[in-house]
Write a structure and sequence with these properties.
- The protein has six helices and two strands.
- It has 186 residues and is mostly helical.
- The chain has a two-stranded antiparallel ribbon with strand order 1-2.
- A hairpin with a 2-residue loop joins strand 1 and strand 2.
- The protein is globular.
Length: 186
C-alpha cells in the first residue's frame, strides 16, 4: 500500500481579506491559469485600495459595487431595473444595493413621472460628493497602474481586455445577463 502524503495545510492568511494561494508542487502557478490568477489578484488589489481610499475620504460604507452603482445613476435618475442591467446583476440584487445607498444617504427614491409603478433613484448631495471622490480615486488608481507598467503597457492592457471582451461577447461565451452590462461594451 502506497502511503499518501497529507494534504497541504490551509493557506496562511496574509491580510484581513486574502489568503496565500496554494501553488502546485512545482512552486508556480499552474499552466493555463496565469491570466485568471493575475486578473483576480489585480481586481482584489484595486478593490482594497479603492475601499481604503473611500474610507479615508469619509465614505467608509462605500465598497466597489456601491461606487460603480453611484457612478451609473443618471442625472435625471435611474430605475433599479436599469441600474441592475447596467451593473450586470438582477433587479433584486440591484434593489439591495439601492437600499444600502438610500439608508446611508447617497440616493433617494422618487416617483417616476413616466411610470407610476416605478421609482427613480436619484443622487443626494452626499451622493454627488461621493461620486466626485470616486472619479478622483479611480483616476489616481489608473495613474498608479500607468506608472507601474508605462503608458504603452497600460494602453496594451486596456486594448487587449476590450478586444477580448468584445470577441467573447460576440462569440456567445458570456452569459446573457452579463452581456447586457455596460462594461462589456467598453
Amino acid at each position: 500500500m502506497v502511503k499518501q502524503s497529507a494534504p497541504p495545510p490551509f493557506p496562511d492568511k496574509i491580510d484581513r481579506y486574502s489568503y496565500r494561494v496554494y501553488q502546485d508542487s512545482l512552486g508556480g502557478i499552474r499552466p493555463g491559469s496565469e491570466l485568471v490568477t493575475l486578473l483576480v489578484g489585480a481586481v482584489r488589489g484595486i478593490s482594497q485600495v479603492f475601499t481604503d481610499r473611500m474610507t479615508a475620504a469619509g465614505f467608509e460604507d462605500i465598497r466597489p459595487t456601491h461606487g460603480f452603482a453611484l457612478t451609473l445613476v443618471a442625472e435625471n435618475g435611474t430605475t433599479a431595473t436599469e441600474l441592475g442591467r447596467r451593473l450586470g446583476m438582477t433587479k433584486q440584487s440591484a434593489g439591495e444595493v439601492v437600499t444600502h445607498l438610500a439608508r446611508q444617504g447617497y440616493v433617494e427614491r422618487k416617483p417616476d413621472p413616466e411610470d407610476r409603478r416605478a421609482r427613480r433613484i436619484t443622487l443626494t448631495t452626499r451622493g454627488r460628493e461621493c461620486v466626485e471622490i470616486i472619479w478622483t480615486e479611480l483616476a489616481d488608481i489608473q495613474g498608479a497602474w500607468e506608472g507601474a507598467v508605462g503608458p504603452d503597457g497600460l494602453g496594451d492592457l486596456v486594448a487587449g481586455l476590450r478586444e477580448g471582451l468584445r470577441t467573447l461577447r460576440d462569440g456567445g461565451q458570456i452569459p446573457d445577463g452579463m452581456r447586457q452590462a455596460w462594461w462589456w461594451y467598453a
